[in-house]
Amino acid sequence: MKEAPVLIIPTTNTTKTNYPTENLSVASENMFLQATSLGLGSVWKAIKTDKFDGEEKIKDILGLPRQYKVINIIPIGQAKEECKPCTDEDFSLEKVHQEKW
After folding, report:
1. Residue 50 pLDDT > 80, yes or no?
2. What element of type H or E holds 30?
3. Are the CB atoms for 46 and 52 separated by under 8 Å?
4. What is the DSSP letter of 59?
5. Are 11 and 61 in contact, with CB atoms under 8 Å apart?
6. For 58-83, what is each residue's pLDDT tens digit?
7. Contact 32, 42 (CB under 8 A)
8. Between 4 and 101, where is the model more confident?
9. Prediction pTM value
10. Contact (Cβ atoms closer than 8 angstroms) between residue 41 and residue 76
11. Pairwise CA distance, residues 43 & 78, whole Å
12. Which domains are seen in the chain, by residue range?
């Protein structure tokens, strides 16, 4: 994150949505797809882990009102390495379940 030229911190007003975490997750995924289409690298950096809860810290740094939800930071920049797409050999039918586990 220290080297990324851009950090995106998606936020949503919890008083205007019933599903803030889900909405932020979908918005974040769309940002990853757009970054990839532009030839840029991106990654999900969680701000809440077992050892650290950074949501309030982020709100304080950015001056966000308390009703806003923050779940991640998205660094955007030039990728250090190219991620190769999955191949047919990576696919396993053993991981597919229909109707029951």
Report:
1. no
2. helix 20-37
3. no
4. H
5. no
6. 999 999 999 999 999 999 999 888 87
7. yes
8. 4
9. 0.82
10. yes
11. 11
12. 6-80 (3.40.109.10)
The Cα–Cα gap between 23 and 57 comes to 21
SS3 at position 68: strand
Structure token pair of residue 13: 């007003």
Both tokens assigned to 41: 């690298």
Cα–Cα–Cα angle for 60, 62, 65, nearest 5°?
70
N-term to C-term CA, the chain: 39
Which among 50, 45, 44, 47 is positioned nearest to 69, based on CA atoms? Answer: 47
Q: The tokens 């190219």 sit on which residue?
A: 82
Strands (E), the chain: 6-8, 11-13, 41-42, 45-46, 68-70, 72-77
